[in-house]
Structure formats: C-alpha cells, structure tokens
Design brief:
single chain, 229 residues, mainly beta, Double-stranded beta-helix, eleven-stranded antiparallel β-sheet, four-stranded antiparallel β-sheet, globular
C-alpha cells in the first residue's frame, strides 16, 4: 500500500473540515465515484451511471448506483465532494492490499479497484451499532475514502480498542471483535460500552466525530411546538 503513488494527478482541498478532491483524469481514462458526489467538472468529462445493486448493497444503505467519469478527447478535471463534512484519505492499492471501509466511507477509486460488500456477521454487525456490512476494497489503483470529522491513522501492532462509532477503515491484517467496556449500566446509561478490539498488525483509520453523538447534541436545541390549551 502506497500513499505517494497515484494513477491520477489530484489535490486535496479544504482539509480537514469540508474536504474536496480535485482530480485530473487523463484522456481516455475513467474514475468511479460515489453517486451524488460530483461537484463540478470540465466539459470533456462525460458521466455514465451504472447500476451496482443487489440485495446486499441495498441493505448496506449505500447508493445502488456508481457514476463513472471518463475524459474524452483531452485531460479533464473533476471536483468530488462527499456528503459528510469531514476529512478524506488517499491510498494506492498494490494488488495484494485489502482495505475494509465502513459502509458510507467510499468516495472514489480507479477502475482497477474492486468493491465488494462483506457481511460482518449478525453478532458483530448488530451489536456494534453500525452496519451489518463493510465495503471490501481490493485490486490495484487509487482509493479515496472520507470521514465525519477529522481523520487519524493508527499503526496497530498487537491490540487496540476503538469505539464502534469512530471506525472508518482498516487493513486486512487486523481482526476484530465487538466487546463491552464496563457493565450493563455503562452500556445503557453512560453512552459508552460497545467497542471493537482489534488484534494483529496493520493500519486503522478513525474519525474524530460520530454522527449519532452529533444528532443527540442537536436534539436538545430542536424547537418543540407546544399545544395551546
């Protein structure tokens, strides 16, 4: 896995809060992008929408469609902006590399990168509070993924524990189990309690915020209409 190699010229803009990717697509080449993430593009860049559905993809909450952008006649620029306000990361998969992403993290990739839906298992998925599925990324080429909040890369060698809501991505060399921190009082009353314990050697990416916690914070300020007596 290489963070310096790329088949495309690209720039990360506006990091880490509202990140956007500016990618220059060589003439005749194609980039796969998550649906609804295109912000702007040159007129020589043409878009085709492909159905990447199936029952498992439907269950992940991912879009059933992937947009393919091809530069025709000359090189063209494409600006990509994911839905979540946060940071983005780029890695180059080298053939034997495999990265697992949370179901909403994939942003874009080269055509040589394979995207598969991987079943976590009922116990891991249900009790993690996250999706029952992960996105398995393999093959060779560029891969971009995003977070909600800023992103931290962790080199794991042994054991490492992360709250389930903060996991963005991890490499295939890591195994994980959902565990409980504290007793059942912690689980139901404190807002803490469910974590993933990673073991092995590899890389882990975590985010500095999680959407459910933000939604709970916003809920306090939501106007409530009172019935007049």
């Amino acid at each position: 896995m290489d963070k310096t190699r790329s088949d495309f010229q690209y720039k990360m803009l506006c990091q880490p809060d509202y990140s956007m990717i500016n990618v220059r697509i060589p003439s005749g080449q194609t980039l796969k992008v998550e649906a609804s993430s295109m912000a702007s593009m040159d007129t020589c860049v043409k878009m085709k929408t492909k159905f990447k559905g199936g029952f498992s993809r439907f269950l992940t909450g991912e879009s059933l469609f992937v947009n393919e952008f091809t530069a025709e006649g000359s090189d063209g620029e494409l600006n990509i902006a994911p839905g979540a306000p946060g940071d983005m990361e780029h890695v180059y998969l080298e053939g034997n590399d495999v990265i697992y992403l949370q179901n909403s993290a994939w942003v874009a990739s080269g055509t040589g990168v394979n995207l598969e839906t991987k079943w976590q298992g009922m116990i891991k998925g249900f009790f993690s509070g996250e999706s029952l599925f992960l996105i398995k990324c393999s093959g060779q080429g560029d891969l971009w993924f995003n977070t909600y909040g800023a992103m931290i890369e962790v080199d794991v060698d042994g054991d490492y524990v992360v709250d389930t809501g903060y996991i963005v991505a991890f490499t295939e060399g890591l195994n994980y189990n959902v565990t409980r921190v504290g007793g059942y009082k912690s689980l139901f009353l404190s807002g803490e309690g469910l974590t993933c314990k990673f073991t092995g050697k590899g890389k882990l990416w975590i985010q500095t915020r999680q959407m459910p916690a933000f939604a709970s914070w916003v809920q306090v300020f939501r106007p409530v209409q009172r019935n007049s007596s």
